[in-house]
Amino acid sequence: MATKLPSPPRVGMVSLGCPKALVDSERILTKLRANGYDMSPDYAGADVVLVNTCGFLDSAKEESLEAIGEAMAENGRVVVTGCMGNEAEVIRARFPDILAVTGPQQYEAVVNAVLEAAPPVPNAYLDLVPEQGLKLTPRHYSYLKISEGCNHRCAFCIIPSIRGDLASRRPDAILREAEKLVAAGTKELLVISQDTSAYGVDLKFASYPLKSGGEVRAHMTDLARELGRLKTPEGDTPWVRLHYVYPYPHVDSVIPLMAEGLVLPYLDIPFQHASPKILKSMRRPANEAKVLERIAAWRLECPEIAIRSSFVVGFPGETEEDFQYLLDWLQEAQLDRVGAFRFEPVEGAAANALPDPVPEEVKEERYQRVMELTARISAEKLAAKVGKTIDVLIDRVDELAPPSEAPDRGHFDAPHAAHHHDVGATGRSKADAPEIDGEVHLRDAHGLKPGDFVKVLVEEADEHDLYGVPA
């Protein structure tokens, strides 16, 4: 008689917040899968639901509480973790029947809570976990967390109080994880942390042995160089994209790696503002003129480089003069990708005590002005790519259907008529990180699949996206 395998308990996951929280969710799921659990795509099929919360802003906390409430209403057996887990009393006050509440990075506590709520069924016949772990992102790109915490004490941020000071991972461990991811199909590694440039400071930039021989120093430049030397099973060099890079002087040493093709010509730098007065109030570095000089030098050494950043408008004390300074700085900097946020007080942040809060209607008006300016700059930069051939990584391939059968398909606002009902595929250039930057929309993309690298002739552009055809 054939052995009937018992059904393992199933876990549902709701993951909120930034990519770092997404990595935490992946690690939790990997540990649970190793313990014999299956994953459930919905509430109804889950024996227990995990909600990985965000606590960075008050609006994020409210979103987390709403997600917890939905999970409680739809399932009722809920474990809460993540940044808002540090406010267990707030969560339990609203949801007294929560099974457990844990803080960020408390993987073992989360797993133990699930083990208690829905014990696994031991079974020796099942191969539970792929070597690279479980992922919530598509197979062809992966976030690679290199450290936790932050040594900065920015006035608007409570991350250090939630995640602590900088704690870097050993570079050899990071490289082992990256090798497994690439071997399993990852074509793009997105390096993340709270402060990528500070990586290794707490380890005193010590060197660690590599299993292949030699050693690697715990330093952003050395780690980036080693990541850029990895190869996919097909022999390609995976893209390596650096996020959350503070413009410390040693960042200049990464630019040659970009020029060599070891690292993507892309820097995600959280400038936050340009006015020296506001930067000082934010407790941020305030040498904005020197930054402009360095950006010019980076572009001279690596003309392909794309720079993205985020800015806060309406910070307490921000005058019209301060804001105009920011607009003028942005006009001169000509950044490729820009995100903006209206200042929002968050409980525990030092900025809450600053005088001269900016009225909400003024914040909104300044936000719109920033977005209009940066959209115009983006449109001009993307228009300059029309007629050029660029490298693109395919994210998804569309099913072709006539407009009468699928009127919601295609890009009706696309400049090129051929894209209205025949997009074919969507990907990203080297200048585009997933979710936060633009996309490249392809027509006549027959035979392509997610994870493919392809040369694309750019035909048209708008404020954020490119449109083209495989070259």
Kindly list the characteristics that best describe this protein:
pyruvate-formate lyase- activating enzyme, 471 residues, 30% helix, alpha/beta, 5-stranded parallel beta sheet, OB fold (Dihydrolipoamide Acetyltransferase, E2P), globular, single chain
Spell out the blueprint of helices and strands.
Blueprint: E1 10-15, H1 19-34, E2 38-40, E3 48-53, H2 58-74, E4 78-82, H3 88-94, E5 100-101, H4 107-117, E6 141-145, E7 147-148, H5 159-163, E8 167-168, H6 171-183, E9 188-192, E10 207-209, E11 215-217, H7 220-227, E12 239-242, H8 255-260, E13 266-268, H9 276-282, H10 288-301, E14 306-313, H11 320-333, E15 337-342, H12 360-383, E16 389-397, E17 425-429, E18 440-442, E19 453-461, E20 466-470
Parallel strand pairs: 1-2, 1-3, 3-4, 4-5, 6-9, 9-12, 13-14, 14-15, 18-20
Antiparallel strand pairs: 7-8, 10-11, 16-17, 16-19, 17-18, 19-20
Give a written overview of the molecule.
With 471 residues, this protein is of the alpha/beta class. It has three domains: 10-117, Methylthiotransferase, N-terminal domain (Rossmann fold); 141-383, pyruvate-formate lyase- activating enzyme (Alpha-Beta Horseshoe), CATH 3.80.30.20; 389-470, Nucleic acid-binding proteins (OB fold (Dihydrolipoamide Acetyltransferase, E2P)). The chain is 30% helix and 20% strand. It has a five-stranded parallel beta sheet, sandwiched between helices. It has a five-stranded mixed beta barrel with strand order 16-17-18-20-19. Strands 6-9-12 form a three-stranded parallel beta sheet. Helix 1 (19-34) crosses helix 4 (107-117). Mean pLDDT is 89; it is low at 406-413. Keywords: 4Fe-4S, Cytoplasm, Iron, Iron-sulfur, Metal-binding, Ribonucleoprotein, Ribosomal protein, S-adenosyl-L-methionine, Transferase.
